[in-house]
Amino acid sequence: xxxxxxxxxxxxxxxxxxxxxxxxxxxxxxxxxxxxxxxxxxxxxxxxxxxxxxxxxxxxxxxxxxxxxxxxxxxxxxxxxxxxxxxxxxxxxxxxxxxxxxxxxxxxxxxxxxxxxxxxxxxxxxxxxxx
Length: 131
Known about the structure:
Nuclear Transport Factor 2, Chain: A, alpha+beta, 6 strands
């Protein structure tokens, strides 16, 4: 993994959140991925489980809920790359409606471990909501 490959993965990550396309989401992750929405969350284990979680198909309280199209945007960048481990930071912004006023802003930090094929095998998000 290098900085450019990490940035490309992060750009695909944002695109997958915006599209909710199951194949785009699945392409980010290894078969045996372990994914956490925050550091003290239970792991979501396995690519299919992560896809279902992102799509809001799980009833688990830690699963995602779908955002209305056009209400989410984000930018993330790698700040450290060490072998197959990447630390990235960025900002997630949610609006009231497409093109509407900002509803919430989060500062994010991701710790991501990749396999040798450039797919995420472990992901933990740390975030804080701006006031």
